[in-house]
Amino acid sequence: MPTPKRFSRGTQRAVTPAQTLERISQFVEPMGITRVANATGLDHIGIPVFVVMRPNARSLSTSQGKGLSLTAARTSGLMESIECYHAERIDAPLRLNSYRELSLRHRVVDPGALPTIGISRFTPSTRLLWIEGRELSSDAPTYVPYELVHCDMTLPLPEGSGCFVLSSNGLASGNTLAEATSYGLCEVIERDAWAMWVAGGETKNHQRRVDLASIDAPLACQLLDRFEQAEMLVGVWDITTDIGVPTYATLLVDREQGPRVRPRAMGIGCHPSRDIALLRSLT
Question: Using alpha carbons only, what angle is made at residue 132 by residues 129 and 134, rounded to the nearest 5 degrees?
């Protein structure tokens, strides 16, 4: 799915944020988005942030977007809300079968490789809903548990629910199918890296802290300067795993806490480009 990249300021996209915004504007009202708020002024750092409200959402009713410009942040927030809308309203055939039954006639993902909840009672004979996806390397039709795909939290729990971890991990949108797929993959790689990093222990994690003076990517340096001006303490860690896709974690803390203790902010970024991965963690 090769896609030409025509916008590369801090990211790699097929079109500019302004062009994306123009394309999606017609869908804002039909998808139930009622408000797009510029939240940048609620902080003192000045990096553009938008909050998008979708009151009748079937999962989270708010989405956040950030970017290097107001247009990029607005577009980011809207795209996040739109992707959630689609995950709440999946219009595709479902099958109610056990893994044992379904795998006799169709290609099915190995349930043993999937994240289950702690009290999962899944067995090969458990009947649950399945939906057809595509295996990434071969494009072969492959069934996966519906519970791992949808984000409709208003559904009455169907038969077999409660086996797998229901979340929006890996949910992504884009200007093209390739773009959306790439960012969905980056998100699950990012979450895996974060889990591995948390499990690594304080000593191991300290060894992976990045010397801020070694960062030479222009946009990242601009953000670090802005954090310094806003009197923020910054910590950056390289949490890339053996998968090999660059992944960073960034911690922001107010240098002066004052009478009110403000919460710490943590960001994680993953991308095939090391500079973009770092930038995503910083924002």
Answer: 145
Cβ atoms of 120 and 165 within 8 Å: the answer is no
pTM, entire model: 0.91
Taking all residues of the chain, what is their mean pLDDT, rounded to a whole number? 92
Interatomic CA distance for residues 63 and 50, integer angstroms: 8
What are the phi and psi torsion angles at 7 (to 5°)? -135, 125
Which tokens sit at 143?
Answer: 């069934």
Query: What tokens does 176 get?
Result: 């093209």
Scanning the chain, the segments in alpha helix (DSSP H) are: 17-24, 70-88, 99-102, 177-199, 202-206, 218-229, 274-282
**226-230 long-range CB contacts below 8 Å, 24 or more apart?**
226/45, 226/46, 226/47, 227/45, 227/252, 230/44, 230/45, 230/46
* CA contacts within 13 A on the Cβ side of 185: 15
Q: Bridge partners of 62?
A: 53
Using CB atoms within 10 A of its CB, is residue 191 exposed (0-12), middle (13-18) or buried (19+)? middle
Q: Give 7-48 pLDDT, tens digit per residue.
A: 556 677 778 999 999 999 999 999 999 999 999 999 889 999
DSSP 8-state secondary structure symbol assigned to residue 146: G
How far apart are alpha carbons 224 and 240 in whole angstroms? 21
Query: Helices (H) and strands (E) in the chain — how many of each?
Result: 7, 9
**3-state DSSP call for residue 63?**
strand
Q: Which amino acid is at 67?
A: G
Residue 82, number of CB atoms within 10 A of its CB: 19
